[in-house]
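As a warm-up, study this chain.
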Amino acid sequence: MSRPAVFLDRDGTINEQRGYINHISRFVLLPRTTEAVRLLNEHGFLAIIVTNQSGVARGYFPIELVNEVHEHLKELLRKEGAYVDGIFFCPHYHRGEVGEYTIECNCRKPRPGLIEKARKNLDIDMAGSYLIGDRVSDIELAKRCNLKGVLVKTGYGKGDLEYVFPNSRAKPLHVAKDLLAAVRWIIKDDRGGKN
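Now compare it with the structure written out below.
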């Protein structure tokens, strides 16, 4: 039976925005992240991470580090009774340095490839699904995929809200302080739609 998903951006939404996470020590969860993911788990949403990781194509770090970071993330969540149902990332960049990843792809946000891949791998009720992120590209992705887009003010969120969104056709359905506030709003919004 299909379930609604909340697609989650990674850097700036789940963990601190520190530029490229080119070492495991630079990966630091934002406060209240684990609680937010656990709430999604408890309320029947699929929690799915969708993230651009062009540092692979740019030669800043190997793809193995991205996988190591994601295993570390899953372990941090597991220790607090939370989990993600899937992690999908784009290692590509069309002006990269590493040949096999230096391509024009369909998975680099805001293109829809990561969402399409998630749909192929998981039974998702897309009509009831949301996307949370800190960049205009996340909200553009939500719009392209007919998802309800929620912007968080962590990471690049405040700056994009003030300087980028005024010139963008994509607008967030809701703006939240952080991931936990966004998830609480989604749960309330979802319940409202079922009454």
